[in-house]
Design a protein that fits this description.
5-stranded mixed β-sheet, Arc Repressor Mutant, subunit A, alpha+beta, 3 domains, single chain, 14 strands, 9 helices, D-Maltodextrin-Binding Protein, domain 2
């Protein structure tokens, strides 16, 4: 069966845009033409790839398998052409980026205008998500991660440190008192996301693992932040997240001899490849430089 490059590009765009109309807008062709070409492709392959009605769009099992293979084929073609033409050295084309909600909103989003002004040929697709993003499965080109280590198969650029401290609002401390030592935390209200416990803290005698149950169950780091500010309990928060509240006195540090494990960093990560698109490296390097004043620990 003969490979049709344009059909593969069309199919990938339909899947990644989530609709025939979205692919049509992306490729600047009519919806009718997209529908016809998809039908021709399905007829040629002898199987239905997409289940589509007025209100539904989903891939069949064959459609998902075909998408995964097509994406890999097109990436291989792109790399092969880039080796010859040097096009991979030009920051251009679609760039899908994912970042954690709080960090992305507070510190990445304000930098995006500068990036797109510097790289007008990049078509940026930027998403915030507190769930773990599977870069390859979700079609993400680059993700910003706060982690202790980087998974195999990924390349990374360290953007900065992720200094974390124990903190609480003055109103909480006035009502409940300040913990005398780390063991005393068990007598206090703890605030943490579902995935954050147990806390791993670096102290004067080494690492301490602090277990416990959060006062409120939540998957949102921003909910934990707001609960701490309003006096609900004690939280382990990143300095980049609460610097303003510490300066204004809305939060204060407690047990200053303890802090979050020092091996957690903030990284830009992307799938390992023989040749990495210039859009990916440009974004990572831009963010590393722009975030340096925010993420560097004061001397």
């Amino acid at each position: 069966m003969k490979m049709n490059h344009s059909e593969y590009e069309l199919y990938r765009n339909i899947v990644e845009e989530g609709s025939l109309s979205g692919a049509g807008r992306k490729l600047r062709i009519s919806n009718a033409m997209v529908s016809k070409r998809l039908a021709d492709l399905e007829r040629r392959l002898g199987t239905q790839l997409i289940l589509r009605t007025t209100h539904q769009f989903s891939l069949t099992q064959a459609g998902q398998t075909f998408y995964d293979d097509v994406k890999n084929i097109l990436e291989s073609v792109h790399i092969a052409e880039g080796k010859i033409s040097g096009a991979l050295h030009i920051p251009a084309g679609r760039l899908r980026v994912s970042a954690p909600t709080s960090f992305g909103r507070l510190h990445v989003a304000p930098l995006l205008n500068g990036f797109i002004q510097a790289h007008p040929q990049i078509d940026l697709d930027f998403n915030l998500n507190d769930k773990f993003v599977d870069i390859r499965a979700d079609g993400i080109d680059l993700a910003i991660r706060i982690a202790a280590k980087i998974a195999p198969g990924l390349d990374s650029l360290r953007l900065g440190t992720n200094d974390r401290i124990l903190c609480a609002a003055p109103s909480y401390i006035k009502t409940h008192g300040e913990p005398k030592d780390i063991a005393d935390l068990h007598n206090h209200h703890i605030l943490a996301t579902n995935a954050q416990m147990p806390w791993r803290l670096a102290g004067p005698d080494g690492e301490v693992v602090m277990g416990g149950k959060s006062l409120i169950s939540t998957n949102s780091s921003e909910i934990v932040r707001e609960l701490a500010i309003t006096g609900s309990g004690i939280a382990l928060r990143s300095l980049w997240d609460i610097a303003t509240e510490l300066d204004t006195g809305q939060l204060q540090r407690i047990l200053p001899q303890y802090e979050g494990s020092a091996n957690v960093g903030i990284y830009a990560v992307w799938p390992h490849a023989e040749i990495v698109p210039a859009a990916v490296t440009s974004f990572a390097q831009y963010m590393q430089k722009a975030l340096k004043p925010t993420l560097e620990r004061p001397s």
